[in-house]
């Protein structure tokens, strides 16, 4: 990283006295300044920040510690530079909780600040940090009611459980008109894409945070209020911008994707790391799954081959439903995962509001979804030779 690249960074300066120094040292950076007022400072810590400069003398030890702790709980948090003349050891120790931080003795000249900022921001790349780029998985059903939303919720919940900190995973419900994820989770519908569609470029990290609703299971839900006309009102640019911002701010983004195609569907499918097509074990559902898989491969060739997941597998070896082998024969391709039928666990969880892994953790559904995550993660790690991230 060079000093020129600092120009694209979003920098928050805590303590207006540092503003002039920051502007000289970080030329062209998008610098915001916030007063050393607790409420204002904590509110200003939105997820899109690249770097934070803290005037520790002006902020005082309590506020400085609070800011550091808020950032330490955040995946993909900004680099932090603590600047002060008499920094207590406890503060410096608190700073060690952050992956990317440094302490600078005041007073200092702009060149020192430039050097420290460049070093802190470059650290993950230089040291081969295992902090990953986001993984984005899209889930769609082959027919109505086959379990796409259920799978999307369980994926988000299990990935959130494996993550080191809450808030690392997002579930984005793109069934914009009548999405059910919020009802299944007992969550809020804060994603007001219709209003943001006029100027999608304004969907920044702060607006993303306002769209989010943190569910008890530890992930952030992005769901829209019920609106029969939503698909007409919401622009493609707004949908894609939300996904782009989500991918910048979370370690994993699970998308509950409607099976009917919208102007943005192919872009979402092309951008996703994985597409999971959920099918139940009936001939019409399997044929539909096969058709969707073929269409996606033809129309969104940039993406990976879609994965096929069979849902509501019977526990009984014999019965009217096709077996996995018969399903694979009908599909003309291998399936990538199968989820056992467990009506009691599924119904109990939607009625209580929350994932099955929260209310019925021993259900076979949870084990089966865990196996799907393990498989996809293993294959992703093998193909990119990256370290496992959150699963
Ligand atoms: N493995 C399972 N065992 C038992 N019930 C299940 C299972 N998976 C899903 N269900 C139940 O099936 C119903 C439909 O599931 P869900 O809403 O997830 O499907 P969907 O494909 O998202 O539907 P839609 O087409 O309406 O979006 C729900 O009541 C859910 O609890
Ligand atoms: Mg659904």
Task: Describe this entry's structure for a reader.
The protein has 391 residues and is of the alpha/beta class. The protein has two domains: 3-126, 3-Layer(aba) Sandwich (Rossmann fold); 135-384, Rossmann fold. The chain is built from 17 helices and 13 strands. The chain has an eight-stranded mixed beta sheet, sandwiched between helices. Strands 2-1-3-4-5 form a five-stranded parallel beta sheet, with helices on both faces. Helix 1 (19-25) links the parallel strand 1 (10-14) and strand 2 (30-34). The radius of gyration is 23 Å and the shape is elongated. Residues 125-131 and 384-391 have low confidence and may be disordered. It binds adenosine-5'-triphosphate and magnesium ion. Residues 141, 144-150, 180, 311-312, 339, 341-343, 346, 350, 365 line the site of adenosine-5'-triphosphate (ATP).
Adjacency order of strands in the biggest sheet:
8-9-7-10-6-11-12-13
- Point out poorly predicted stretches: 125-131, 384-391
CATH superfamily of the largest domain: P-loop containing nucleotide triphosphate hydrolases
N-to-C SSE series?
Answer: EHEHEHEHEHEHEHHHEEHHEHEHEHEHHH
On the 0 to 100 scale, the average pLDDT is: 88
Number of strands: 13
CATH architecture of the largest domain: 3-Layer(aba) Sandwich
Structural class: alpha/beta
How far apart the termini lie comes to 30 Å
> What is the class of the largest domain in the CATH system?
Alpha Beta
Number of helices: 17
As a whole number of angstroms, the C-alpha radius of gyration is 23 Å
Bound molecules: adenosine-5'-triphosphate, magnesium ion
> Level of helix content?
40-55%
Strand content is 15-25%
- Quote the CATH topology of the largest domain: Rossmann fold
Sheet of most strands: 8 strands, mixed
- Characterize the overall form: elongated
Domain count, please report it: 2
């Amino acid at each position: 990283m060079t000093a020129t690249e600092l120009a694209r960074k979003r920098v928050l300066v805590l303590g207006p006295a540092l503003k002039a120094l920051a502007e000289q040292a970080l030329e062209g950076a998008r610098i915001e300044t916030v007063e050393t007022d607790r409420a204002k400072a904590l509110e200003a810590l939105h997820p899109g920040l690249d770097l934070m400069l803290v005037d520790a003398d002006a902020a005082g030890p309590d506020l400085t510690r609070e800011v550091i702790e808020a950032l330490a709980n955040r995946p993909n948090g900004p680099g932090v530079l603590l600047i002060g003349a008499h920094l207590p050891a406890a503060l410096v120790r608190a700073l060690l909780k952050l992956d990317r931080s440094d302490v600078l003795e005041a007073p200092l000249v702009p060149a020192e600040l430039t050097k420290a900022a460049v070093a802190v921001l470059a650290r993950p790349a230089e040291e081969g940090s295992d902090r990953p780029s986001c993984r984005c998985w899209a889930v769609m059903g082959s027919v109505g009611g086959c379990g796409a939303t259920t799978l999307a919720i369980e994926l988000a919940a299990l990935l959130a459980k494996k993550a080191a900190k809450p808030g690392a995973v997002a579930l984005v419900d793109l069934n914009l008109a009548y999405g059910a994820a919020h009802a299944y989770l007992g969550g809020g519908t804060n994603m007001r894409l219709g209003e943001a569609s006029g100027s999608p470029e304004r969907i920044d990290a702060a607006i993303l945070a306002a769209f989010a609703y943190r569910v008890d299971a530890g992930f952030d839900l992005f769901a829209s209020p019920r609106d029969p006309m939503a698909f007409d009102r919401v622009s493609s640019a707004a949908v894609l911008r939300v996904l782009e911002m989500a991918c910048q701010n979370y370690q994993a983004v699970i998308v509950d994707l409607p099976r009917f195609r919208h102007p943005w569907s192919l872009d979402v499918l092309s951008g996703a790391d994985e597409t999971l097509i959920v099918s139940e074990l009936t001939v019409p559902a399997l044929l539909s799954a096969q058709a969707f898989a073929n269409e996606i491969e033809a129309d969104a060739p940039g993406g990976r081959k879609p994965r096929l997941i069979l849902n509501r597998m019977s526990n009984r070896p014999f019965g009217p439903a096709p077996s996995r082998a018969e399903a694979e024969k009908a599909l003309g391709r291998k399936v990538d995962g199968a989820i056992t039928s467990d009506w009691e666990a599924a119904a109990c969880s939607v009625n209580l509001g929350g994932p099955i892994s929260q209310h019925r953790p021993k259900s076979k559904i949870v084990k089966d979804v865990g196996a799907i995550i393990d498989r996809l993660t293993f294959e992703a790690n093998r193909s990119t030779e990256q370290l496992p991230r959150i699963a």
